[in-house]
Amino acid sequence: MSSRRRFFSTVFTITAGNTLSKYAFALPSKSNIKLRFAIASDGHYGEAKTQFENNFREMVEWINLEKENRGVDFTMINGDIIHNNPDFLTPAKVALDKLSMPYYVSRGNHDHIPEPTWLDTWKMGSNHAFEIDDIGFITLSTTDESGKYICPDLEWTHKHLTLFTDKKHVFVFMHITPVKWTDNANPCSEIVEMFNNQKNLRAIFNGHDHDQDHIKDNDGKPYFFDAHLGGSWGTDYRGFRIVEVMNNGTVITYQLNPSSGMKINTDTLKG
Known about the structure:
alpha/beta; 6-stranded mixed sheet
């Protein structure tokens, strides 16, 4: 067994392919949860020949139900909120404002919105960071306003990773994955190396690849995908990902197909 594989097996407990009922699979007691958040991406509000209004309405209802049942502290909408046309930005925001918890956004390659408008609309830049107790969150832009793929701003990223050095956990959200393991990836070796050197970086969350809904590993750093909220292609279901940070430092994440009440997979990152 290679050293990389040994490291991977000691860090993660993988139970991929578990498709038990969403209401039947075992989870730790709710009282053990420190923080719980949802991630959905690729809504493509305004894409022709898709039911984008209904897709947003249903996703908001599903995540709000999670809030009522087990709790959701915030939701991340990880890019491609709209489909190219800036006119769809306002109605997409109106739809997302129906979420019953705080939410954050990242910019995707179909979000053709200039930075001043993005900031004015969402009250956060395309690069932004926030913290909740001893957990730091970093959101990185992976495109410019025209939709051209770009690597994240190295100086800005390094600064904020450094600011979070003493945090128990750090999580990164970025629409396009920086490792060339999918057809639509944008390789960014310098940012990957930076991630690998950040010991408390627990996971990177990507959207963009609608047909990806599980985990990929790069030298012990897990990258998670969440399929798609909308759009015209991808997995045969529309879903979202839940992340639970437990009081003991363990992180549990699982992908849901809410329309069928099925859990697609589960991964546990040991504390």
